[in-house]
Amino acid sequence: MESNQLQSGTPAPYGRACINCSRAKSKCILLATGNGCERCQRLKKDCRPSPTVRKRNARSSASRTAQLEAKLDNIVSLLQTNGGPTGIPADWDVALPTTGQNASSQSQTCASSCSLPSGGIPTPPATVSAPNSCSVEDLCSTLPIPPETAEQTLSYFRTENMKYLPFVHIPSHMTSQQLRQEKPFLWLCIMAVLMPGSIQRESVFTKITGTIHQKLLVDSSPSMDMLLGIMTFISWTTYARRPFLNFYAHVVMGLVCDLGINKPVPTEYSTMQAFKSAVGVKQHIPTTRTMEERRAALGCFLITSRIDALRWNPHLEESLSILMNAKECPEDERLVSLVKIHLVMDRVYHLQRDGDSHSPATFYTKAFQSQLKAVKSTIPAHLQEDRSILLYLTNAELTIHDVALQAPSTPNSPELHRLESLYTSLQAAKSWLDLWLSVPVENYTAVSFTIFFQFSRALVSLYRLSILEDPAWDKTLVRNTANILEYLDRMANMMKNCADHISVPHQPEWNIFEKGQVMVRCIKEGWEPKLMEVWYPSLPSTEVENDFNQPNPALSDILPITGFDDAWMMEIFGSM
């Protein structure tokens, strides 16, 4: 007992009391002679030290995990034996020991349905499964696309789709296989949106949306591959049972903010970096934003500009300037021009939304015209007559002069500035529709959804100009310059040809152009009575009001009004 180190009256160290004192829960005072303790000597008992030293048991995390797994196995075994209810979802699949009695039940998949006993409590299948996740590469492997077709599709995407929304640069030397290895989800979305019409479209659409939900909402694993893939998917998808653009546009904005590419890389002097250093978080050496990230952020601004645009900030301005000066790829010049045009339109949208009753409309119209003229002067010469650039410019003119359409008329003293704006709007609407109808049928799949919003604006503006009640406005001139009924007929025919080009067997409700064809014809049915009344007032009135609040049965069957995206619906019907 190491008595030579102990003095008389010294209490025994913790855990080293003798057996008698320990049992009596009495304090053990050791003798200086080392021959036991005071209590045992007084009671004339044999003083023996305790055989063991008390120790604290450290529970390892591994043993605790093993205990939990054992408990879970025991619970599952009891459920199998008793057939009782469980709270584990039926679409999970955990491997269980195979026995002669449950071997058949274990072969069931996660899709097995639960049986209902007489008590009404669902009895789960014997198999409980782990979440069935499918990697992006596995999903790519399900697309039966020959290598030659994949190369042709990628080449088409570079040369045609990028004309309308150049938010990504895929070098000409990069093969389809290389893109698939580097950015599998982007590759998958490119192949999906340009896949020839087939019955597999619904399956591919469902799998892609499922992958987006899994990666972003469940796994919370954002990446540039996911961002570029989603931007491609929502910009060129020509088949969908229900609208999805509003939802995914906000997903894109959230993803851009999550990746942080809408702002500069944090410096070591920033508040957050200082906080991370203080708490001991490992710091990464700050780097500058890549050209890929800058293009994606500016592309997000274009995609979301007509819904709820990504907020413009100094970093995006810097990215615009860097892309403009670097000229790393030919499409950067196009992207810069489109963003500049949209910045002018964005200011118009803010004015229309916030309103300003203190200044005349002509003041803003002239200011925006000057800004748009300045943007035109910066567009490279080889893009001055480019169809996509002209579509954006013409749409910007319509947006600017839309103020004149909304202003009330003054019969006694017509404003010359307002009449000038109305005539400019008429020419712009006609020019836009002519450009739209000049696109070859096989190339409409390359047109992004940002252009489809412009289509609705041009159509609505021309209709409003055709029925505008203003003594100084010549409606006959409008009809002779741009007959909206003729344009609607041409558009319906164009939509039909496009629908045939990308036909989806047995699934017309998935074809955007099938829906568009029905929509255009129904719009004509709704507008024609009013137009006839305005153009030919001497004819008997049809007494048909142009009321879009009344549902059109033909339109509701294939294109329910409640199924439109809000932005799309507001563009077409909200300004009537």
UniProtKB/TrEMBL annotation:
Location (main, coarse): nucleus
Gene3D superfamilies given in the database record: Zn(2)-C6 fungal-type DNA-binding domain
Entry annotated with the keyword Protein transport: no
Keywords: DNA-binding, Nucleus, Transcription, Transcription regulation
GO molecular function, one term: zinc ion binding
PANTHER family: FINGER DOMAIN PROTEIN, PUTATIVE-RELATED, MISCELLANEOUS ZN(II)2CYS6 TRANSCRIPTION FACTOR (EUROFUNG)-RELATED
UniProt-listed CDD domains: fungal_TF_MHR (cd12148), GAL4 (cd00067)
InterPro entries: prtT, Zn2-C6_fun-type_DNA-bd_sf, Zn2Cys6_DnaBD
Ranges for domain Zn(2)-C6 fungal-type: 17-47
The keyword S-adenosyl-L-methionine belongs to this UniProt entry's keyword annotation: no
Species in which this protein is naturally found: Penicillium canariense
Protein name (database record): Zn(2)-C6 fungal-type domain-containing protein
GO cellular component: nucleus
Subcellular location: Nucleus
Domain of life: Eukaryota
